[in-house]
Design a protein that fits this description.
By secondary structure, the protein is of the alpha+beta class. Helix content is 17%, strand content 36%. Helix 5 (335-342) crosses helix 6 (344-351).
Length: 397
């Protein structure tokens, strides 16, 4: 028994003197920064979405991840500190910045790492001392001394929003200690360019006019008209259209007609028929709509919606009135089509009071040797109005 105890004791003593594996050292140079997400769906940036006195915002704009070796988490070394420099450059002709110009620079310090560091704009304000995964210290935030901050401030105060332009955000990660291989050198970087262009105009082109009198003078001759409008480019905008019958005897205004039973959309629980693309031309659909009728007035409107820092904003065009005239079978036999094809000035030269064709009637229009249908002519007229086609010459045979 004595021999056995001595043997066990020897093993225990020997085990005690076997060197324990040392904890691996944290290499701060192995940290990186990456973009998790940036909300590119926002079109309008309004200052009401930000508290300028505290720097707080509930608008979800971005999230970045700073991560490194696991040995750096829960470490007590005072040298394990990161410096995150950021800058914002602006290209904005509205502010007189006709080339990329530095606007502001700032620094954040990260330390006491407990895991990967998540930096969300909603988690940071002027008094923030920690974020998910680390302690945080806000360093100097300095605007470019060569730009006129008063002009920018006046613009923002008067408009209530950030001016249109291209904003470039750059985040550079450094070690905040000089006693390592990366001290003073950038170890990781990420860059994001954001286009901020809030749309300003939405104008109807055709069919229709602001008054019934004008609609009477220039009716359309198809029950599947092309609706054309003009608007700013906006890739994140959504568009919808509403078309309703207009009876001057029962509706006291185009607005009242538009908000009565709609032909498009036919589902009366929907205010506007969703347009899938950003095209500014839409053909009246054969399904999902109530058929349009000849010798009838209609009104239409376009709605545009997009996301801003204060919620969804909705823009509405004017309301246009158009009349569908009576066509002859499937072939156009009305001079109004010809007027739209060749233009009112040329049309008046031939068919006006002193024109050589005054009093003549149109028996048909041929396209490539065949009788042109209403749809054929509508497509050509649409291309002319969009600037994608032109009439080079008019000859009389």
């Amino acid at each position: 028994m004595t021999i056995l105890l001595r043997y066990i004791s020897f093993i225990a003593i020997s085990f005690f003197f076997i060197p324990a594996p040392l904890k691996a050292q944290c290499d701060i140079c192995d940290f990186t920064i990456e973009e998790i997400r940036f909300n590119t769906n926002i079109v309008g940036y309004y200052m009401a979405g930000f508290d300028l006195s505290t720097g707080t915002s509930n608008v979800d704009l971005f999230e970045y991840l700073v991560s490194g070796p696991s040995e750096c988490y829960y470490s007590t070394s005072s040298s394990e500190r990161l410096k995150l420099d950021f800058k914002i450059d602006i290209f904005s002709p509205e502010l007189g910045f006709n080339s990329q110009t530095n606007f502001v620079n700032g620094t954040l310090f990260l330390s006491d790492f407990t895991g990967p560091v998540r930096i969300k704009n909603t988690d940071i304000n002027f008094s923030t001392t920690s974020v998910d995964g680390a302690s945080l210290e806000v360093g100097n935030i300095t605007p470019n001394k060569f730009i006129n901050l008063e002009d920018i401030g006046s613009f923002i105060l008067s408009s209530g929003k950030i001016p249109n332009g291209t904003y470039t955000f750059t985040f550079d990660l450094f070690s905040d200690a000089e006693d390592n291989s990366c001290g003073g050198n950038r170890i990781s970087t990420v860059r994001r360019e954001v286009e901020i262009y809030e749309p300003t105009f939405l104008d109807l082109q055709s069919p229709g006019f602001n008054s019934i009198a004008e609609a009477d003078q220039s009716p359309v001759f198809t029950t599947y008209p092309n609706f054309i409008w003009s608007a700013d480019m906006c890739s994140e905008c959504n568009y919808g259209i509403r078309v309703s019958k207009y009876d001057p005897l029962t509706h006291d205004s185009p607005y009242a007609a538009l908000n009565d039973i709609s032909n498009l959309p036919s589902d009366q629980s929907i205010d506007f028929y969703q347009i899938d693309s950003n095209s500014s031309v839409f053909t009246y659909p054969a399904t999902g709509a109530i058929d349009l009728e000849q010798e009838t007035y209609y009104v239409w409107q376009i709605k545009r919606s997009y996301e801003t820092t204060v919620g969804v904003k909705e823009d509405y065009s004017d309301i246009y009135i158009f009349k569908i005239g009576r066509s002859q079978d499937s072939v156009s036999a009305d001079l109004e089509f010809l007027k739209e094809l060749i233009g009112e000035e040329v049309f008046s030269q031939y068919f006006g009071p002193n024109g050589e064709l005054n009093g003549f009637s149109l028996i048909g229009i041929q396209l490539n040797g065949d009788n042109a249908t209403t749809q054929d002519l509508d497509e050509i007229i649409t291309k002319i109005k969009e600037g994608n086609a032109d009439v080079k010459d008019v000859a009389i045979e």
